[in-house]
Design goal:
The protein has 415 residues and is an alpha+beta fold. It has 2 domains: 218 residues, no CATH class; 169 residues, no CATH class. It has 12 helices and 10 strands. β6 and β7 form a beta hairpin. α1 runs parallel beside α9, α7 runs parallel beside α11 and α8 packs across α12. The radius of gyration is 35 Å and the shape is rod-shaped. It starts with a helix and ends with a helix.
Length: 415
């Protein structure tokens, strides 16, 4: 029982750690809204109970590139499948709460060479590709102009905060249009893209928001409350939940917890039956002794107390020995079971690392590296209580048929 309870406690800790490691989140896609996710809507979303306060805002647009005098800047057109009309000097604009956390940098192989990344605190700042910088003689600290492709009146002068490069070759070379080539991508701050998209000044609106929750099990409730926020046309928004990794991990741990629970129930029943049978046979072998005690005038309560004390002395010794034995067994069995759960679960987690690094860091990434399967004081107290009650109940039940007989009847049966 100590072993089972220790593993059960460890799985509860594992579940809590996995919630932290595989945080659930949902995405609000407000691309179809004329105003996007406004600051007012953002504040109302963040006020919903259950959100961790961790969120990422994103926007995407296209803009013409020129210097501050309005002279067009050169883009890469040689590797493009086509150069759409009006996009001869345009490229893709990407804005993120923090540019270094954008998927182009985390997954796409982009790497900052000079300058600093862009955060939501920056205003009128951009990151440009090294080839784009070379082609137009730009460096960190220089200025350029971004203007909306369809509305040239929405133009912003921005400062080059950094220069990046791509460490992976683009797969769509010769297939993608010119504005989607890596060379022609520019990372800007959220306020700049908000002006290009919506013409907002002083306030920032975005197209997408990723909102992380404290407990992935509450995602449905939180998303329902978000949809009830007034002032937003939720019919034109798409809310998407992302908690597959957590659900897969939870399913594996729940399976382990169910097995342990069944084991505890089976062990408890078997313990009771075996102990009751053993004590019944033992007391039946002491019927004559019991009759003599009763014939000597010793009360039934005193005789029963003696039998109980005998059992309790052995039970206390057994419980003390069980602590060391269970600690060793729990550590071995529990670690193997949790490691198996980790391996099965980690196969479902999408990480952008090599297979070798995945294998080495899987336990750490899933938050299981900090779990120690050990006998806790609480579990030990539970087993002490259950064990003593079990001993008392088994002894009393086994002694009951004898104790209800009179001394004369006991001795006459024995003779």
């Amino acid at each position: 029982m100590l072993t089972c309870l220790s593993i059960q406690s460890a799985t509860e800790t594992a579940n809590a750690n996995i919630k932290k490691a595989l945080m659930g989140y949902f995405t609000v896609n407000a691309k179809q809204l004329e105003t996007g996710i406004t600051e007012s809507a953002l504040n109302q979303i963040l006020s919903v109970e259950g959100l961790s306060g961790n969120y990422t805002l994103r926007s995407y647009s296209y803009a013409n590139y020129s210097d501050t005098d309005g002279n067009p800047l050169k883009i890469n057109t040689e590797d493009a499948a086509q150069v759409p009309d009006g996009y001869e000097n345009a490229g893709r604009i990407v804005a993120n709460t923090n540019s270094e956390n954008d998927s182009y940098f985390t997954d796409g192989g982009f790497e900052l060479m000079e300058g600093t990344s862009i955060t939501s605190a920056n205003k009128n700042s951009v990151l440009i590709h090294e080839k784009f910088a070379e082609r137009n003689n730009l460096s960190v600290g220089d200025t350029m102009r971004l203007s909306n492709v369809e509305n040239e009146n929405r133009a912003v002068d921005v400062t080059v905060a950094g220069i990046f490069t791509n460490t992976k070759e683009q797969d769509s070379v010769g297939i993608a249009p010119s504005y989607d080539l890596y060379d022609n991508i520019v990372f800007a701050d959220l306020s700049t893209v908000s002006y290009l998209l919506y013409g907002t000044e002083g306030k920032t609106s975005v197209q997408y928001g990723d909102f992380y929750v404290n407990d992935p099990d509450e995602l449905d409730r939180i998303m329902s409350e978000v949809k009830e926020i007034e002032g937003v046309n939720w019919n034109d928004c798409t809310l998407t939940r992302y908690d597959n990794d957590y659900q897969n991990a939870k399913e594996s741990l729940t399976g382990l917890q169910n097995i342990v629970f069944i084991a505890i129930a089976v062990v408890s029943v078997i313990c009771f039956l075996v102990l009751a049978l053993f004590l019944t046979l033992r007391l039946r072998g002491r019927v004559h002794e019991t009759g003599v005690y009763l014939a000597m005038g010793i009360s039934k309560g005193a005789v029963l107390t003696q039998y109980l004390l005998e059992v309790l002395i052995v039970a206390v010794i057994a419980l003390l020995i069980s602590y060391g034995a269970s600690s060793a067994i729990s550590d071995q069995i529990g670690s193997r079971l949790l490691s198996q759960v980790t391996v099965e679960t980690y196969g479902t987690v999408e990480l952008t690392d090599t297979e070798e690094n995945k294998a080495q860091s899987s336990t750490e990434d899933l938050g299981l590296s900090e779990i120690v399967v050990a006998v806790s004081a609480e579990d030990y107290a539970i087993v002490w209580g259950f064990g003593l009650v079990l001993c008392l109940a088994s002894t009393a039940l086994a002694a009951y048929p004898i104790m209800k007989m009179k001394p004369k009847n006991i001795l006459s049966q024995m003779s």
